[in-house]
Amino acid sequence: xxxxxxxxxxxxxxxxxxxxxxxxxxxxxxxxxxxxxxxxxxxxxxxxxxxxxxxxxxxxxxxxxxxxxxxxxxxxxxxxxxxxxxxxxxxxxxxxxxxxxxxxxxxxxxxxxxxxxxxxxxxxxxxxxxxxxxxxxxxxxxxxxxxxxxxxxxxxxxxxxxxxxxxxxxxxxxxxxxxxxxxxxxxxxxxxxxxxxxxxxxxxxxxxxxx
Length: 211
Description:
four-stranded antiparallel β-sheet, alpha+beta, Arc Repressor Mutant, subunit A, Jelly Rolls
C-alpha cells in the first residue's frame, strides 16, 4: 500500500506526543533559500509540511541537475538520499519544514508505543517508494534522445492522470535540469512534438496524445 505521509495511520494527538518526545523542530524558508546542504551528512529527517522544494546537485562546472521534486509530505534526509555528499534541498516556494533526528525514528521506543512502530513502517514504505521512483527516473534518463526522454517522462505523468492530461511539476527550466538536457534544445523538441501530433500544450498543461 502506498504511503502518502510519514504520519499516515497515526492520530493528530499521537503525532503531537511523538513530536514533543522527539524534540522535533519546525522551520520556515523563503523561496530560493537553501533548506539543507551536503545532505548525506545531515543526521535529520526533513518533512515538507507546506510548500515545494527541489533536491539538486551541482557538478564541478556549476551545471545543475534536479534529483527530485519535493512537495507537501515529501521526506528527505541522509537515509533517503544516498546519492552523494553534494546534494542540497532548495525551496521553490515559501516552505515550512519539520526536522526530526533520524535516531529518534529508528531506535526502539522505551514505552512500546504502537504509533512509533507505525512511523517506522511508514519510513520503510517510503524508502521502497523512493526506490521505485528512482528506477523510473533512471529509465527516463537512459533514453538516448531528448524526444525519447520527454515522451518517456510524459508517459509516467499521463499514466496517473485522467484523459492523459497533466500539469508539469517543474518549470521548463527545471524540467531541462531534471532530464539533464539543454533547455533550448528541449524547447525545440517540445515544439516538434506538438507539431507532429504527439502532445497538446497550454503552458505547463500537457496532454499526451500518442506515444
